[in-house]
Amino acid sequence: MVPMKRILHEPLLHFLLLGAILFGLFRFFQPADGRGASSRRIVLSLEDLMQPAQLFQAQWRRPPTADEFNSMVENRVREEVLYREALAMGLDVDDEIVRRRMAQKMEFLSEDVTESYEPSADTLRAWFARHADQFAEPQRLSFRHLYFSPDRRGPRTELDAQRALARISGQPEATPLGEALADPFMYQDYYRDQTEETLSREFGPGFAHAVEGLPSGSWQGPVQSGLGWHLVFVDASIPGRPAAYENVEAEVRTAWLAEQKKIGWEKAYKAMRAKYTVLIPDVPAAAPAAATAPPPPVGEDP
Hints:
By secondary structure, this protein is an alpha+beta fold. The chain has 3 domains: 4-93, no CATH class; 96-136 and 245-270, no CATH class; 137-238, Roll (Chitinase A, domain 3), CATH 3.10.50. Helices cover 54% and strands 10% of the residues. The chain is built from 13 helices and 4 strands. A hairpin with a 4-residue loop joins strand 3 and strand 4. The longest helix is centred in the C-terminal third of the chain and has 25 residues, at 249-273. The chain starts with a helix and ends in a 10-residue tail after the last helix.
């Protein structure tokens, strides 16, 4: 015979009890006759009650207790009460935040239509063929650098880097002389498998573009970044190459859906926009100039 304590701790029993509570609450809130229901009556559906319980289960890995569930139901009722009272007071009228939220929901509804359509493999392959550049694997570089700090050296920073390059020309990548001539760097001295995008974020686009064009196997430079000047030794360069469709199929589907959402929204908005006539007042020609004119000096009439 299974001990009673073990039965009481079974999750299945908890779900059954929760279901009974949900059913009771649903019957309590559900009107006997939905026709002509008063605006003062709040009717919660079974879905309204199940949703917070499911979110709680997902977050805490257990069903809510009776008190926790009652609190969630009351929160839902409180939200509905406050929403209706706000509408009754006209708080939604001329409210910029409400207007933006409603417009955003309309945009989401228009976009959601495209999510229900599942593209065929042929559709995705044809789309990938037209957008293959988006999925190409970029060039990757591995390099070591020596840093020359403008904060320490001032206007002679670039010249110091040029002189250092002349002294270490022909030296191997790991050169004690180069380290002695350079300044400490706040990040890394060696970077592995870097793309132009990652280098741009750390050093700036000018540095990233310049390093991509350097030959491998020798000290080069000086190359300027947003941080100062650098001598660079590229020890590995992997050229960029096109991606195989099979390796990026999931990314292709995501990008295709994003494009379809955009197209669907633009089409839906165009149809909605066509229903309206927009009247815009004429703006006096002098108005923009007056708005941007500098204020008169203090103590003088405008």
